[in-house]
């Protein structure tokens, strides 16, 4: 592709690089100049324009973007995505429903190394999406790119962007009560909102005393394909009331604690192959926390391992919420025996 000043009398077929107003006519950048455009420019006394002229081995930006999108997502409906029509060298990949984005990161990095003008930008891996959310944008920055580079990019990252949709339709929640504990009506609404954002239904909510045996019976009996526990008092240890109740119910706890803040006190387990998520107290707020990352993956049938949760720490320092002011910026603890300062 050749780019630069072009005499107007030789500009027919060139791609205009910068928008121009010629009398009442507005010529927008990116248009291919036709004979009428050239005549209008000549009549207005314009002697040259900045334009791009494609070589024989170049692919126009829109065609290149279309081809690249087709390679990245060969069957959009099969992977929960919708592909937009190309415009100004851009094609967007849009979520066709709620779900979690899965990416072949290494392949996408190869794709972006082919040519600086061939790009894809995505949301982070495992980002939860709603219907219509933009998952990725493919952009050919220049007006054209060489055919050889388009071919190389097409083979660099085939079928590398997907949306995993929820595989479960329902969930149940058990809430424990302690004397003087929180009113969980707002917390239940927040959790219901999370479930409904995934296209699921919270079909059963039960409230029981904060005792292992009572909670064990309730979590085993609660309806829903996923069971969640929200305790009136924070779970502080793998042998605390909630994790213990899962084991008493014949289940197991695979992980207690996660390197995400807010969300440290989450645990993950199962009872008779049904996932059980012990929610941290911050799940009472609708603000993003570690429970969202785990719940969305579990709901979409993505296996969450101990290593997966360990790896969430990088990027796991989430935004503070107004009701939880800066715990990491609090006063230092007093040493034992030191009188308080007033």
Pick out its properties.
342 residues, alpha+beta, Aldehyde Oxidoreductase, domain 3, Molybdenum Cofactor Biosythetic Enzyme, Chain A, 2 domains, six-stranded mixed sheet, four-stranded antiparallel sheet, elongated
Structure write-up:
This protein is of the alpha+beta class and 342 residues long. The chain folds into two domains: 58-164, Pyrimidine nucleoside phosphorylase-like, C-terminal domain (Aldehyde Oxidoreductase, domain 3, Alpha-Beta Complex); 170-313, MoaB/Mog-like domain (Molybdenum Cofactor Biosythetic Enzyme, Chain A), CATH 3.40.980. 25% of the residues lie in helices and 28% in strands. The protein has helices at residues 35-43, 61-72, 105-113, 147-156, 185-197, 212-221, 241-248, 290-299, 306-310; strands spanning 2-7, 15-16, 20-22, 25-27, 48-53, 58-60, 81-83, 90-95, 99-103, 118-122, 128-129, 134-140, 144-146, 161-164, 170-177, 201-209, 226-230, 252-256, 267-271, 274-278. It has a six-stranded mixed beta sheet with strand order 16-15-17-20-19-18, with helices on both faces. A hairpin with a 6-residue loop joins strand 7 and strand 8. Helix 2 runs parallel beside helix 4 (147-156) and helix 6 packs across helix 7 (241-248). The termini are far apart. The model has no long low-confidence stretch (mean pLDDT 93).
